[in-house]
Amino acid sequence: MKKSFIINQETRNPIRELYSWLKSLQSTLCFMQTGAHPDDETTRLLAALSLGQGTHIVYVNAVRGQGGQNALGPERGDALGYLRTEELIAAMALIRADLAWLAETDDDPIRDFGFSKSDKQTFGYWGEAHSLRQMIKIVRMFKPDILLPTFLDVPGQHGHHRAVTQVTLSAFDLAADDSVYPDLNLGSWQTNALYLPAWGGGGGSYDDEVPPPNATHQVDTGEFDAVYGGTYAQIGEWSRASHATQGMGRLLDEENWPVQLHQLKTASNTPFADKLTENLPTTLAEMAEFCSGEPGKKAALKASELAAEALAAFPDIASVIPALCELQTCLDVMEGEVTQPHRHRIQLKKTQSAMAMSEACQMQISFGVTPEIPVIGAATTARISWHQAEKAGLEINNASWQDPLGAIDASGFVAGTEDGKRRSLSSEFSFTGDTPTPVMTGWHGVSVRPSTLHAQVEFTVRGTKFRRTLMPDQPLGSTPPLTAAINPAKQLVILNKPENLSLQLAVMQDAAAGVSLTTDEITLNAAPNFADALIVNTANTLQKGASFTFDVALADNLRQGRYSLAAQAGGVPLLSSQTLAYPHIRTQTLFQPCKTDIVAVDTASLHGIRVGWIDGGVDRAWFWTEQLGASVTQLDDDALLSGNLDGFDVIVSGVFAGGTRPINQAMDRLKGWMQAGGRYVSQYHRPQDNWISGQSAPYDLMPGSPSIRWRVTEAD
To answer: pTM for this one?
Structure first.
């Protein structure tokens, strides 16, 4: 497999990035869309506004996606939520959009608990007041001019969608009310216009009972952009393809595909047509009206000319660089004179100008740490490096840590050794505290200061000063000195066949210096209906790879239910780590309690039943079938197409297996086996899993997309 760091270097596209940032300097507007799940965003619309018109985009998402499906692998629950978080970050980066979350942390009550049939049920989990507060907080932080929920609040829609739309509509008014949540200390903000989608959610899983409102405005997404190499609708699908766990992304032809919107409310209470906002500065030139003095007004007019000049000069870097230098000087003047309600617009333009200059100078800046996942308390090196291009006139003056969480002790950045045309600054630091520093954050992008660890870089180009925020190349968090894993992590106990449990606890990471534990300090917590867990075999040290065996006796009165046994070291709960790595996103590490989950069931054993399993690779139902006593054999493609099936009582086609396994080609053989008395079970499949009626099942059967109202859903 091609190395990921080679792919990253090969596919970087500074000329396209420069074009994108130059486009962003042409508009002073901000458009915010809100949705419930990663992949709810209307990417063709956002791409057209951002990459086509230069509008600053903020997408607000409610949940992390813990309740979704996974077309790539076995991750579910919180692990899937981390993957889908990274997918949405990648999707928004592709269309140059900021991203914010109602669920700021991984333990936020705003969770994806699966299909919800009503807004009332959703708020029962999320908390209506908490959800509204989070939306108001984000509106006040990002100061959008235009607000659009993705879905309509109508019966037949997903309860999560309806809940997000409700708090979005409420936030339009309440975010402007100083008396609402003054403790946020953010100041009120009045959005200029509120829109609804003028399209329905009918079809597929949703069947809106109410038709969509009439269209008052529309945004064309069919224009072909030669620099990007596609229409904005096509670029939107490139963005959607980042949601690979959900199988997103379609191949589109070049065609007109307008997105229609319905203007629901305006700040002036007067409808307006032709454009999406009114009485707002849409360009730097129009900012002159909001500058207090003549120098600011002149700077605004000149800044607008320079922004247009830089874009017109593209891709002539020799002309772009001086235009950006002069533009930055004008923005400095404007920042001191523009009135407060609009100052954030100039501050954002300064950031975007610095990002454009970074690309124009071919800086290729990088921010890495060694080791990539630092141990709490251990010495770690951070390195900022950049390409020193000839004739660019670039000098990096200073880099400094920005630590909103107070998570590290760090030295200042100092110049490193020169390596060819690459220059560097480095800093020694260590993470503090007793628990891992979280990498999940509430927002990402350029318009609001990051809430997690980052750096600020100041640089000069031909005497003009620029400043930009620099995020680490990979999510930067910490790991505890000692991590461990219990095997098996999940177990099934059949009550009418009681057996003691044998658990293996393996040390995954060496204890750091200063950690002193004896093996008898490794314990499992006592749980109801379980006798004390006793170590029957111990290692001598707490080194990586050390293994401990626990013999867990079951109580005579054990009842059907769910139980958990968690490991401790010296009375402190241990954590286990899970690396989440796929080539289309950044690598994440998920820390969870080191425990085993046990389900006790009162059921008959499947002992003696022989099962052939056609695995789709997305779940472990075969494992639980084994736990129930069956003998399970994994059928590879050769066995499925030409092997002897006579030895099986049951053959199971696993979840999504038809999408990757030759079930259609093997169906005639399977039919013959069934006619001889075999039992065939097909688990969850969708139409897109290569399903062909009459070939994917022994009889004509076509899976569909039933309405949410007919689905059986259970959050817990």
So the answer is: 0.90
